[in-house]
Amino acid sequence: MLEYKLEELAATDLPLVVQKLKLPSCQVIHRHNAVELVYICHGAGWCAVNGIVHPMLTGDLYMIPVGATHEYHSDGDLCYVNCLFDKNIFRDDEIELFRYFSGNDPEQMLDKYTFGPHLQKKISFLLDELNEELNTDRPFNMLRARALFIDLLIFILRNAVLSPGIRASHAQKHLGKVLSYITDNLNAKLSMKHLAEISGYAPDYFGKLFRKELGIGLSEYICNRRLERACYELEHSAMSIDEIAVRTGFFDASYFIKMFRKHCGITPAQFRRNIQAEHERKIIQ
What we know:
With about 280 residues, the chain is an alpha+beta fold. It has helices at about 5-10, 95-100, 115-135, 140-160, 170-185, 190-200, 205-215, 220-235, 240-245, 255-265, 270-285; strands at about 1-5, 15-20, 25-30, 35-40, 45-50, 50-55, 60-65, 70-75, 80-85, 110-115, 165. Helices cover about 50% and strands about 20% of the residues.
């Protein structure tokens, strides 16, 4: 089996690798001699970790322990960041932090988390900054890279309690096709009955299983995915607020604005202005 070694991938003296990648149609089964965090920037697909299938969607963060076999398959333009590290990057007084992410303690972090739009931006920022520091020769770049890495882990740890988390379960094999269907049909009316039929379960059992496995109810999950798609359209398209409301399945613009403000803290128009201002700042720099 193909095995990637951290010491061969690291470009610096730090036992740390950060790569932003666009996934081809599939990546063959492999393993690492390091802990791996996989963060989905955008797109959709699925992965199998130790033979258990999980959907991969925007905002998902996977925790893959040392030696776990895994493979990825993309349904389209899947972009992700992987971060590999081992115990040696931590100081003696930080070992407890490593234990949360090592996968060796079942009472610590779960296997997968889904972060909402308001947290995705911060995670992406930290990963981008970390990647940049690891690939520059600016003064004290390794010192800042390590500090950013610790900041990233603490941010994930503190916010994981606010985000749906799951442990590996063979029920994910049945739910995976439901989640893929939701992603492909966000602009349609998505009923519990129809999604239960796709899963092969009765509606009542499907609703309970969905909440148990993902830690979130079906309606809230669909709303979160629609808001994530809306954020993407606000940033990457010139569509009006009304058009985005229809495209993301909210249909009514006033309801879309209400839900966006509730979950993101600002209106869609304010979100778009903030994104445009951030782009202009980067251009000036």
